[in-house]
Amino acid sequence: MSDRAALLKGIRAWLVLFVVCLVLSGATAFPLVHELHWTESLLKSLSVPEHLPALTDWIERVRHGLDTADADYPFLLYGTDWLAFAHLVIAVAFYGPYRDPVRNIWVVEFGMIACVGIVPLALICGPVRGIPFWWSVIDMSFGVFGIVPLYVVRRRIKRLEALTAPNATAAAAT
Q1: Does residue 150 form part of some domain?
Q2: Alpha-carbon distances of 112 from 17, 143, 152, rounded to whole Å
Q3: Which residue range(s) make up the domain with 159?
Q4: In a domain, 170, yes or no
């Protein structure tokens, strides 16, 4: 396998991993009410309330809020449907770098910028919305963990670009 083919294969593998994670994080925004019931039941069955009461209290509070919104104001949950949809649409954009990484590196860089943007969003909006700091740290971890595969992909795309640049120059000269 050539260096170019190996780089392309690695780029595509990292992109698939990133897209799968993005789709999963988006898809989980649709059934929030049910997920919180499952989470609360799981935490209780694992005796988590004894060891992490703050986590259990927070999950219970969020579940109660979602139950109330679902029962009395279901249109509020429509916002999380749009959040899920946005994740899915952004995931589709990564087909461009999958197909032609060098030409579509901007999508990867856009994703990296979005990952960095998660941190100030969580630090600013979390306190405004009454989110516990430790939960904001969990939210920020999505940006930190999300940027890692994108950084690897960007570096590999730059190496791929360097490998293909001499071929493009030679073809243009002939």
Answers
A1: yes
A2: 15, 8, 11
A3: 3-163
A4: no
What is the per-residue pLDDT across 42-52, written as a single tens digit (0 to 9) for each? 999 999 999 99
Instruction: Give the C-alpha separation, 76 to 1, whole Å.
Output: 52
Report if residue 174 sits inside a domain.
Answer: no
| DSSP string for residues in 54-106 | HHHHHHHHHHHHHHHHHHH-GGGGHHHHHHHHHHHHHHHHTHHHHH-TTTTHH
The C-alpha atoms of residue 133 and residue 77 are separated, in whole angstroms, by 23
Closest CA to 11 of 108, 106, 90: 108
Please tell me the distance from the alpha carbon of residue 50 to that of residue 63, in angstroms, as a whole number: 19
Q: Which of 104, 149, 146, 163 is nearest to 14 (CA)?
A: 149
The Cα-based distances of 145 to 96, 102, 112 in angstroms read 22, 23, 11
Q: What angle do CA 89, 92, 95 make, to 5 degrees?
A: 160
Question: Is the pTM here over 0.90, yes or no?
Answer: no
Q: Looking at the 3D structure of the chain, how many domains does it have?
A: 1
Q: Are the beta carbons of 70 and 63 closer than 8 angstroms?
A: no
Main-chain dihedrals φ then ψ at residue 79, nearest 5 degrees: -60, -40
Task: Note the pLDDT tens digit of each residue in 129-167.
Answer: 999 999 999 999 999 999 999 999 999 999 999 998 766
Is 172 contained in some domain?
no
